[in-house]
């Protein structure tokens, strides 16, 4: 089974489509196919041949869309339709990084700006790009993605791979991608993804509370999940610090630094397995089964590096007021200054 990840990947490369660019033609065809398969969610839910679980989750998507709009998110025409796919992922993305630095290799596109990944609608094409990256000496990571946002340029359907998520994760997905439709700073992937996660993690609790889920049950569930996430990111940050020291030792022979790098990743896995019981039911076993490299850490950092900063502002300066925070983040996204400088100036 392909690993599903939350992604705000924006395929706005379409805006710069030229007839001579095979990659952009691939993206255009994949996007077109996704839209051609789309059926109105209401029609699918009402179809007696639709499996009960599919109908239930699509009805949940409709609720999540209405909820997102209530909170001021610009869902637009997204998630009004459903595309049944014959594959385990909607797209596959490839992250690349330098071998001896935690620096992503970025791709730059019109409108979307520079992003630290490249996406494909066909697994074979993604794998070919992944293998080519390795041949060129980069660390690389390839993963399946169940959803992405075109930032309102197309009526994004919810695709069948996304329905493999839990109900809570599915609601978070809708909120996450709706944030991208509402606020997007070209070329600032860490800001965009961390903001979407920050808002999704905050609002999903309110979503279930409004549906009458017991407050105690909600607090227990999210406390366990937040604890596991904190443990995971603590392990990752410890390893990043180790690797930064290794990579900064430019006077040490490359082969020795590469061996030290391998040892650091081995210690990361050992630390996870030693603390596995503390994660409870929310674990990261799948992640640690991989042969980890810099590209894996870059992919995590894209979504998480800036989240502590944004959450500190949301719950500190803005007192948890999501609507005011969103208005301020629109200003940050539009600012000509570095986004962290603009964030420091944001006021309720």
Summary keywords:
8 strands, mainly alpha, 3-stranded antiparallel sheet, about 350 residues, about 55% helix, 13 helices, 3-stranded mixed sheet
Give an overview in words.
The protein is mainly α and 348 residues long. It has one domain. Helices cover 55% and strands 9% of the residues. It contains 13 helices and eight strands. The chain has a three-stranded mixed beta sheet with strand order 1-2-8. The chain has a three-stranded antiparallel beta sheet with strand order 6-3-7. A hairpin with a 3-residue loop joins strand 4 (107-109) and strand 5 (113-115). Helix 6 (189-210) crosses helix 10 and helix 7 (215-248) packs antiparallel against helix 8. The longest helix has 34 residues, at 215-248. The radius of gyration is 20 Å and the shape is globular. The model is unreliable at 1-20 (pLDDT under 50).
